[in-house]
Amino acid sequence: MFKQKGLLIVLSGPSGVGKGTVCSYLREKQKDIIYSVSATTRKPRVGEVDGVNYFFKTKDEFEEMIKKDQLLEWAEYCGNYYGTPRTFVEETLEEGKDIILEIEVQGALKVKEKYPEGIFVFLIPPSFAELKNRIFYRGTETEDIIKSRMSIAKDELQMMKYYDYAVVNDEVPNAVKRIQSIIEAERLRKDRILPYYEQWLKEEL
Ligand SMILES: Nc1nc2c(ncn2[C@@H]2O[C@H](COP(=O)(O)OP(=O)(O)O)[C@@H](O)[C@H]2O)c(=O)[nH]1
Ligand SMILES: Nc1ncnc2c1ncn2[C@@H]1O[C@H](COP(=O)(O)OP(=O)(O)O)[C@@H](O)[C@H]1O
């Protein structure tokens, strides 16, 4: 039986645009996609669970993962390391399952070098003013971190040109519907469907 590799979907965008919020809503709506859990040296926030939200690591542990080539990509962001465990992604794709990575922009561009066939979705705010509001009112970080995230966000917004799709996160359910449409369309691309037809033709002759 012909086995197709899964789709690698990367959801990225500027800090504070709503990647985390949109991704967890998508997670509820789209159960047939696997979600990659990242490793980080950031301290857990209230309610975050090790192995569910992140794999929380010390700096030494994280650097060991880098050395052993256990990360598909990693980036330093606001003084902490974040990275995607490599084996889990590779195995999921080999099993033919679709996987989504919710990561910041530098990491997404590194994934693109390794997986140019991936689907790169860039989440954008309805306006820059709204992006500022979201970063301010989230209120989980100190003022210094908020300032640093806003300046990073400005540079990050310019990275949209490297992506396949731009999705406006005006309302979370709408943004999620748009992402679901992209996934549905990508699953139906003829280069993914054709191998199945070719297999059928062989069987019937
Ligand atoms: N490169 C990379 N970025 C990640 C990874 N996991 C999470 N991030 C990004 O790191 C940034 C900070 O994440 P976090 O501290 O959880 O804060 P928040 O998502 O902005 O609330 C976000 O932009 C995440 O998308 C990863 O494995 N690799
Ligand atoms: N569509 C939206 N409308 C209004 N607020 C939103 C929307 N999406 C996310 N937010 C809010 O914006 C803030 C940043 O969202 P978050 O998911 O943490 O962003 P990111 O993961 O991109 O840094 C949070 O307070 C979140 O509740």
UniProtKB/TrEMBL annotation:
PROSITE patterns: GUANYLATE_KINASE_1, GUANYLATE_KINASE_2
Tree of life domain: Bacteria
Alphabetical UniProt keywords: ATP-binding, Cytoplasm, Kinase, Nucleotide-binding, Transferase
Gene3D superfamilies assigned to the protein according to its UniProt record, in alphabetical order: Guanylate Kinase phosphate binding domain, P-loop containing nucleotide triphosphate hydrolases
Keyword Flavoprotein applies: no
Catalytic reaction(s) noted: GMP + ATP = GDP + ADP
Keyword Kinase: yes
GO molecular function: ATP binding; GMP kinase activity
Cellular component GO terms, alphabetical: cytosol
Listed EC numbers: 2.7.4.8
Localization, UniProt: Cytoplasm
Domain spans labelled Guanylate kinase-like: 6-184
Listed InterPro entries: GK/Ca_channel_bsu, Guanylate_kin-like_dom, Guanylate_kinase, Guanylate_kinase_CS, P-loop_NTPase
Binding site for ATP: 13-20
Similarity comment text for this entry: Belongs to the guanylate kinase family.
Record-linked PANTHER family: GUANYLATE KINASE (PTHR23117:SF13), GUANYLATE KINASE-RELATED (PTHR23117)
Function: Essential for recycling GMP and indirectly, cGMP.
Classification via HAMAP family: Guanylate_kinase (MF_00328)
Record's protein name: Guanylate kinase
Species this chain originates from: Vulcanibacillus modesticaldus
Gene (UniProt): gmk
